[in-house]
Amino acid sequence: MKRTVIMHVEGVPNPNAMKFVLENGILVDRPYEFANLVQAEHSPLARRLLMLRYVDRVLLNHNFVTVVKDIENSPSWDDMLFEVKMLIQAHLEDDKPIIFFGVEEIKHQESDEAIIEIITRVLDEHIRPAAQEDGGDIVFDSYKDGVLNLSMKGACHYCPYAGQTMSQGVEKVMMGMVPEIRQVTATGNPSL
């Protein structure tokens, strides 16, 4: 029996990303990002998407999937949007697994626990909702000696506005709400 899937597509600030929003259900409990088939071994949906030659990375989040296309050698979204949407929709309608248990989550270093709790609360309440609205996510990576490292996921990863978002948005909010923070960086983000 097929499941009914209601989905819409949203453009995001990153021209190489597109957000596919599930209107009637939950996909995953927290963000999972996959940049290659090895990373996606526990996610049948991400694997299927990454098998498309022009898909560079996939972010699975609460109720949406963000697909980031390869910056070079990719067709326009007009040429590929239907195929990507139908692949996601068919996978969900057939009630195939989205992700298997046991996928490794991002872990933080076990230092400065009280500050890390405050940081994650500020991220969850003030920063991540805006990033998720734009098809991405900004998650905690590590904190040590006043330096906060964040990881930009999904549409945020290659976004041409990532530097501006980090310096004029995220850094100001984090430093304003958590005085112990002296610097905010984005781990592994080629846009910065």
Q: Please tell me how large the radius of gyration is.
A: 17 Å
Stretches where pLDDT falls below 50 for ≥5 residues? Answer: 105-111
Order of helices and strands: EEEHEEHHEEHE
Shape: globular
Number of strands: 8
Strand content: 25-35%
The overall average pLDDT, rounded, is 87
Structure annotation, total helices = 4
Secondary-structure-derived class: alpha+beta
Share of helical residues: 25-40%
Numbering strands along the chain, what is their spatial order in the largest sheet?
1-2-5-4-3
* N-to-C CA distance: 46 Å
Main beta sheet, described?
Answer: 5 strands, antiparallel
Helices and strands, with pairings:
Layout: E1 7-11, E2 17-22, E3 32-34, H1 44-50, E4 55-61, E5 64-69, H2 77-93, H3 113-133, E6 136-144, E7 147-154, H4 162-177, E8 183-186
Parallel strand pairs: 7-8
Antiparallel strand pairs: 1-2, 2-5, 3-4, 4-5, 6-7
